[in-house]
Recover the amino acids of this structure.
């Protein structure tokens, strides 16, 4: 066991603990723990970091029947007014540190910050306070952000890493989409998941290995897209996707509970077990939403003119990459491609203003309408209980949407430390029963 260190000094003028700096020396000795929100994407991103000299590990605490340990850790060290995703992420970190698996003198924690007003920006401070309470005040917390919010000398996103992280998102979106479209049809259960694991490892090693120069050529990346699609199309049973289609169920909501198996009690697995095909928009859509909001700041409020110009360039670049991926998916008629984000962001205009950008903001409403536009008439709206922004743009939009499209099957599911999985599952089963009618 590691020796106990003196607690970090807390400022006399604030109850916020001072930051513990992640140094260059720590890069060589410390394991960086990452919370598990997007298993497919994060597995590739983690390997990219590892191949650039970091030692990272995606946490599995809470994902194998031990969720209560994570929830209880979160409840113990986070105020219960904090949103459920923050409670889970912090609880997963604390549970891992208390597990005895790590030398806590040689561990750091990584948490993303987007620069918005919710968990993805502000709860890094809650994490630091929780670490002090739990006796881990010496553990550094690294902010992963592109907004200049915090910097650490021992952790830097270098220029060569940026395109690799972008393609990790695109590859992750493609693999997640194909896995969800195949799982309910595969003859041998687990085939799609195993193939997804195989490709995730291969892609990360390609992008950072000895032949990285070739792997990062765009022609090769598009060849990889086609190879991934061919492999998934060859899974036994997937040929029935067009001839004997299953009920498709869209999943939208707050980004953590939408994607994380820990946050939504394994919602995708549950839908597959019930004979339904889960449909989720990818992480790239959320990135484009963040980019769009920085452009909107200038258009709506006249602030950030220069920043807006930079984000417009990024917007065009990301949209082109998405169009290329969509066109390649269309080459294989078995699969449904993603919806172009340029179309998605026009869908909510009749329902919610584009200035509604707290939390998932207008994107959440737009994703509900995107699913309906794609012919997915069954949508689960996942939301942390008490998350005011997402209750407004998610659950609050159900009535006006159903008034315009009464045939749509919408259900809002609250996720909270006190909510029971059986109650959540039963509500979804009722929606599926209505869908099958």
């Amino acid at each position: 066991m590691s020796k106990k260190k003196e607690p970090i000094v807390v400022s006399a003028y604030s109850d916020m603990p001072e930051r513990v700096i992640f140094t260059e020396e720590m890069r060589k000795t410390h394991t960086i723990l990452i919370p598990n929100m997007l298993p497919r994407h994060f597995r590739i991103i983690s390997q990219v970091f590892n191949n650039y000299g970091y030692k990272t590990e995606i946490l599995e605490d809470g994902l194998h029947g031990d969720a209560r340990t994570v929830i209880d850790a979160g409840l113990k060290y986070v105020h219960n007014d904090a949103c459920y995703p923050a409670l889970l992420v912090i609880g997963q970190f604390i549970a891992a540190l208390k597990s005895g698996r790590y030398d806590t003198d040689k561990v750091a924690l990584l948490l993303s910050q987007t620069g918005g007003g919710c968990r993805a920006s502000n709860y890094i401070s809650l994490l630091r306070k929780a670490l002090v309470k739990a006796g881990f005040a010496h553990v550094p917390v690294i902010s992963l952000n592109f907004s200049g919010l915090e910097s650490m000398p021992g952790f830097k996103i270098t220029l060569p890493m940026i395109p690799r992280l972008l393609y990790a998102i695109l590859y992750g979106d493609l693999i997640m989409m194909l896995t969800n479209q195949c799982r309910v049809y595969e003859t041998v259960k687990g085939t799609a998941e195993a193939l997804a694991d195989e490709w995730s490892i291969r892609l990360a090693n390609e992008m950072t290995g000895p032949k990285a120069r070739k792997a990062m050529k765009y022609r090769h990346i598009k060849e990889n897209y086609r190879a991934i699609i061919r492999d998934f199309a060859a899974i036994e049973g997937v040929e029935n996707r067009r001839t004997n289609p299953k009920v498709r169920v869209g999943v939208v909501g707050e980004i953590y509970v939408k994607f994380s198996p820990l946050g939504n009690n394994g919602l995708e697995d549950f839908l597959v077990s019930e004979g339904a095909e889960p449909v989720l928009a990818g992480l790239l859509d959320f990135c484009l939403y963040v980019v769009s909001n920085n452009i909107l700041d200038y258009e709506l409020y006249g602030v950030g003119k220069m920043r807006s110009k930079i984000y417009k360039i990024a917007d065009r670049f990301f949209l082109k990459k998405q169009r290329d991926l969509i066109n390649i998916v269309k080459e294989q008629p078995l699969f449904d491609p993603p919806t172009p984000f340029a179309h998605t962001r026009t869908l909510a205009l009749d329902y919610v203003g584009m200035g509604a950008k707290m939390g998932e903001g207008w994107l959440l409403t737009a994703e509900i309408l995107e699913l309906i536009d794609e012919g997915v008439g069954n949508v689960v709206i996942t939301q942390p209980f008490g998350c005011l922004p997402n209750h407004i743009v998610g659950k609050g939009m159900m009535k006006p949407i159903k008034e315009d499209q009464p045939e749509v099957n919408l259900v809002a599911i609250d996720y909270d430390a006190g909510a029971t999985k059986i109650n959540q599952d039963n509500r979804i089963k009722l929606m599926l029963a209505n869908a099958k009618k």
